[in-house]
Amino acid sequence: MKKTIYGLFAFAALMLTACGGEDSTSATNNEEVKEDAIVAEYTLDEENSKLEWKGSWTGGDNDGNEHFGVIDIKSGTVSQNGDQFHGNFVVDMTTIDAQDLDEASGRSRLLNRLESDVFFNIEEFSTTDVKVNEIVDGQASLTITLAGVEMNKTVPVNVDVKNDVMTLNGDFTIDVAEVEMPGNQLNPEKPEQGTISSEISFKLHAVLNKK
Known about the structure:
The protein is α+β, with helices and mostly antiparallel strands. The chain is 21% helix and 48% strand.
């Protein structure tokens, strides 16, 4: 009888040890998964990054006329976890420039208007913040804070990572109508003149280096 009891205890101990071994292996596997999920951090290479813009007139005699230029991306970081990406960028609104005009054809006049409270009001809002919530299947979910107004937009962006360098390229249009800039509003007294479109086209080329 004693041998039988001892045998049962030994069997139970063996089973407990076996179960404990499975938990240990499972814990080890979980640790390995955590170690594999390494987040890579990338920071903006300002000199090799640029954001091009293009705006157009809609309605009236100037319908379809365009102006275009560049604006600096002040800073930026992107984190990569496998095929998941998120980050933040800051656009320096004080650097907005027009490349289709010279001084004789009204470059300064255009820039002064864009910088005024009729449009971007850069005296109060010198930067635009862009939060990258995620990039999935070539579509970037963004939260943009422009002139104090937060907007959620989704735009096409291609991500390429090679040799510790990440590049983001995109060609897209963003409608900023919800910011309600006076410069985008039709003059009810002169509707025949049309107005500046609230849709702004952008070409993004951002280069980021791994930390």
